[in-house]
Design a protein that fits this description.
There is one protein chain. α7 packs parallel to α8. α1 links the parallel β1 and β2. The strands form three sheets. The protein has a seven-stranded parallel sheet with strand order 3-2-1-4-5-6-7. A six-stranded parallel sheet has the order 10-9-8-11-12-14, with helices on both faces. It has a two-stranded parallel sheet with strand order 13-15. The radius of gyration is 21 Å and the shape is globular. The two termini are 13 Å apart. It is 34% helix and 20% strand. The chain is α/β, with parallel strands linked by helices.
């Protein structure tokens, strides 16, 4: 039997790229069994369900920022011991893991038990060398072990070329034998044509909301100022208390906090809006050199995208002569910006580039299934 085991320490429900990989693998005929070993998230998070019996999802313990120390360490022990036991029992020929925190079972399995196994690694985020050193001891230790895997892995990927460049620099002199770029695109069936802009303008934000790392205050105050011309809806499961308190404290009639939505249902919600917004401040390199999955999701659903000028990896996507419009904004200087001018399409031509996960994932699927 041809077997693949996937390790993803954090709950897969938080990570659309993994959900998309599983959907693509459901229709692939190469593997007889695909085991996904992950953790449970908060109770309110909609559970991802596989549509194929060959995909078995095993959720161990709980993970999340608000868990107690005992629960957290129990989950670590459970995840890593069960993960290694599963590998030794099932003996899959291929192991894919996401992020350093997921990698220990794959390392032990390949180095000490099954040298001919093939290892595949993907990073949702970029972590600097300094962040590894200042971070959790466990992650730092696992990352040191990863250096043995990099020359031997069949695949090591980041989400964009900037992040990969920094990563390769950080791990020098270790050689990464097979580096790849794997962007976070949505499914092909999300494609929607742009529609006529609403009045008032409808803006959507999806994801975690924070005060310190985002221009939440600046944007909310601008939206409030233009309440006759702008509506802003925020869909979130995972926001810090300070951000929620601030938004509620504004008591703005044109800003709404809404409960987060299961990823695969977003395609029914996003096209109802005109603009998707991304406003990280770029305090850390992981944000500065990101092209958010939300960016591609908004565009694929036909929306304009407004993003902060501090997102350097997103800047090359900015448009001048076409729509959907991709506009870098200085969120520190929005006072006199008129939303009606931002959304104007006068003199612009339609150009909707295609960003589909089925295309982006094809090289990974090929590597996973090649003999």
């Amino acid at each position: 039997m041809k077997k693949l085991t996937i390790f993803h320490f954090n709950p897969l429900e938080w990570y659309p790229p993994l959900q998309n990989i599983l959907r693509v693998l459901e229709s692939d005929t190469h593997f007889d069994t695909i085991r996904v070993i992950t953790t449970r998230g908060r109770a309110e998070l909609p559970v991802f369900l596989a549509h194929s019996k060959k995909i078995v999802i095993i959720r161990l313990g709980r993970s999340g920022a608000k868990l107690g120390l005992a629960t957290r360490w129990f989950t670590y022990f459970y995840f890593y011991s069960y993960g290694l036991f599963s590998l030794l029992k099932e003996r899959p020929g291929r192991v894919l893991y996401f992020e350093t925190l997921s990698g220990w079972p794959a390392y032990i399995y390949k180095r000490f038990f099954y040298r001919s196994s093939k290892i595949y690694i993907h990073y949702h985020e970029y972590t600097t060398a300094a962040e590894y050193q200042k971070g959790m001891v466990l992650t730092r230790y696992f990352h040191a072990l990863e250096h043995w895997l990099y020359p031997r892995a069949e695949w090591v990927s980041h989400t964009n070329p900037d992040r990969m460049s920094f990563f390769l620099r950080d791990v020098t002199p270790v050689k990464v034998a097979h580096p790849f770029i794997l962007p976070n695109y949505p499914p092909r069936n999300w494609l929607r044509p742009p529609h006529e802009v609403h009045e008032p303008l409808r803006i959507i934000y999806i994801g975690a909301l924070g005060m310190d790392s985002m221009f939440t205050q600046e944007f909310a105050q601008w939206v409030t100022k233009w309440r006759q011309h702008v509506i802003w809806d925020i869909y979130t499961y995972n926001s810090d208390a300070k951000a929620i308190e601030f938004i509620k404290g504004l008591q703005s009639s044109n800003i709404s906090l809404r409960e987060g939505i299961h990823y695969e249902k977003l395609v029914d919600i996003i096209p109802q809006y005109d603009v998707g917004v991304i406003f990280y401040k770029g305090i850390i390199m992981n944000h500065t050199y990101s092209v958010s999955n939300k960016f591609y999701e908004y565009l694929t659903c036909g929306l304009d995208v407004w993003f902060s000028t501090s997102l350097l990896s997103t800047l090359p996507y900015a448009t001048i002569t076409s729509y959907p419009k991709i506009l870098p904004l200085d969120f520190n200087s929005l006072e006199e910006v008129d939303p009606r001018k931002l959304c104007s399409r006068n003199g612009l031509t339609l150009r909707q580039d295609h960003y589909f996960c089925e295309v982006a994932l094809a090289p990974l699927i090929q590597k996973l299934t090649e003999e």
